[in-house]
Specification:
The complex is a heterodimer of chains A (247) and B (234). By secondary structure, chain A is of the alpha/beta class. Chain A has 2 domains: 175 residues, 3-Layer(aba) Sandwich (Rossmann fold), CATH 3.40.50.300; 45 residues, no CATH class. In chain A, the strands form 2 sheets. A 6-stranded mixed sheet of chain A has the order 5-6-7-3-8-9, with helices on both faces. Chain A has a 3-stranded antiparallel sheet with strand order 2-1-4. In chain A, a hairpin with a 2-residue loop joins strand 1 and strand 2. Chain B is mainly alpha-helical and 234 residues long. Chain B has a single domain, classed as MetI-like fold. Chain B is 76% helix and 0% strand. In chain B, helix 1 crosses helix 10 and helix 5 runs antiparallel to helix 7. The radius of gyration of chain B is 20 Å and the shape is globular. Chain B starts with a helix and ends in a 9-residue tail after the last helix. The relative contact order of chain B is 0.17. The model of chain B has no long low-confidence stretch (mean pLDDT 90). Classes of the chains: A alpha/beta (247), B mainly alpha (234).
Chain lengths: 247, 234
């Protein structure tokens, strides 16, 4: 069961997150790794790389959705406690067969909050993200942008310490992307650590404080965003930044 | 053909004169089957969901057995329940044999595997959609089961209605454990069986038509109350 939401004893930070020689495999076939990476307490890390480079698997491995075949993924606190303090936004939003309000309230109810209070909080969040008029609509019938906003609200409503985002703006138009970026920046300002996979170079430049470049299932390059975009160390990263095809 | 027409006429008469015996039989039929469906749902729905979200060594074998139990012969169930509830049986002390309670027990045994098996199929599809989300939100196993049952409730209605269909039309087991005692354990199916045995075909057909009308009505009422097949539902 997830931790209680309203108890506020001084909590140790769940960060940094350390990956040491972490590998993911499927039926013995290596997907990602070995990865050595540290996600510090602050900032917005952008995970970039061509299709199939292992961005999603890396995020899933960090979040605990992908089994770590070798190596370690260590949080600053025990893993079981860390699980309840992180959230994930999927590339294809997973919509529960519920109304918008109940979908957003769901994580709070899982954490033991009463239904009425959870709905009131969900309603506030829905207003905040521009879904105020859609509270009673069935979540699966929302548009693509609305679904992604709902996913974000559902992920952020319990104030996670870290939020993983797997290409949250893929297939969205410019306006929806801008709205989602605004929500992300607000969450970041509120103390939520963000780790986001994206293909969108413009978005990466706008948001990133540091970059992890994946290539062939390995972390090919990592470092502060400014340095990465100005002077990438590897040929593949340079090609990727220029928009050339990296195979 | 004459008997069929006479049966229709008899059914019409029985319904519109509000025949007391018929109402009693219909009432008991509904009471027994709806109670059995309710109990079987309380067992079968969580069991179906539990089998979806849990991984254990003999899971596949358990699901295969559950599916096989859908074809459980009612007469065999009746016989076993009879032996268990008879005076010399382990539960004979409760004096349940030839009572509606015995009929409910037999129906629960027959219906539960069906409800559990169908709900397992339904929830398995929903679990494929929800798996990553519920794991990501760190939901406990019980919370996962609750979420799946709630969100799949409209589809799960089909499982319950299938159970109701099997129960209301069942005759073998309830005949053995109920005894078809007039004003006590006589239900529509056992009454039809009795009237057929007596050669009273027209009345038997009349009762049969009432049974079909009852099954259809319950389905329609439940679908209507649960608002299935509407544009804004799933």
């Amino acid at each position: 069961m997830v931790g209680s939401l309203d108890s506020h004893p001084p909590q140790a930070s769940i960060l940094p997150l350390r990956l040491t020689g972490a590998c993911a495999r499927v039926r013995g076939k290596p997907l990602v790794g070995p990865v050595d990476l540290t996600i510090g307490a602050e900032g917005l890390t952008i995970v970039m790389g061509p299709n199939g480079s292992g961005k999603t698997t890396l995020l899933r491995m960090m979040h605990g959705l992908q089994r770590v075949a070798e190596g370690e993924v260590c949080w600053n606190i025990p893993k079981r406690q860390a699980l309840g303090r992180q959230a994930y936004v999927f590339q294809t939003p997973i919509m529960m067969r519920r109304r918008v309000m109940d979908s957003i309230a769901f994580p709070l109810i899982l954490r033991g909050m009463g239904k009425m209070r959870a709905r009131a909080r969900a309603s506030e969040w829905a207003q905040k993200i521009g879904l105020g008029d859609a509270l009673s609509r069935p979540a699966p019938f929302l548009s693509g942008g609305e679904k992604q906003k709902l996913s974000l609200a559902r992920a952020l409503i319990f104030k996670p310490d870290i939020l993983f985002l797997d290409e949250p703006c893929a297939n969205l138009d410019g306006r929806a992307t801008r709205e989602i970026e605004a929500i992300l920046l607000e969450a970041k300002a509120g103390g939520t650590r963000l780790v986001m996979a994206t293909h969108d170079m413009g978005q990466a430049r706008r948001l990133a404080s540091d970059v992890v470049f994946m290539y062939g299932g390995k972390v090919h390059e990592k470092g502060p965003a400014e340095g990465f975009f100005k002077g990438p160390e590897t040929r593949e990263a340079a090609m990727f930044i220029k928009g050339e095809i990296v195979e | 053909m004459n008997e069929l027409a006479q049966g229709l006429l008899d059914a019409w008469k029985l319904i519109f004169t509000l025949d007391r015996d018929l109402l009693e039989i219909v009432g008991l039929s509904l009471r027994v089957t709806l109670t059995a469906v309710a109990i079987a749902s309380l067992i079968g729905l969580p069991l179906g969901a539990w089998l979806v979200v849990n991984r254990f060594r003999y899971r596949r074998a358990t699901i295969a057995v559950l599916n096989a139990l859908m074809g459980l012969p009612p007469v065999v169930v009746g016989l076993v329940v009879y032996l268990l509830l008879s005076r010399s049986g382990p539960f004979g002390v409760f004096g349940l044999l030839f009572t509606p309670a015995a009929m409910i027990i037999a129906q629960v045994i027959i219906i539960t595997p069906m409800i559990a098996s169908i709900s397992h199929q339904v929830i398995r599809d929903l679990w494929a959609d929800y798996h990553d989300l519920l794991l990501s939100l760190n939901a406990s196993r019980w919370q996962r089961i609750k979420a799946l049952l709630w969100d799949g409730r409209r589809a799960l209605l089909t499982a319950m209605l299938a159970g109701f269909g099997r129960g209301i039309g069942e005759v073998g087991a309830i005949m053995i454990v109920g005894g078809n005692i007039d004003h006590n354990t006589r239900v529509l199916t056992t009454a039809i069986s009795l009237e057929t045995g007596k050669g009273n075909f027209a009345f038997a057909i009349g009762l049969g038509l009432v049974l079909i009308a009852l099954a259809v009505s319950v389905n329609l009422i439940i679908h209507s109350l649960s608002k299935t097949e509407r544009a804004s539902n799933w």
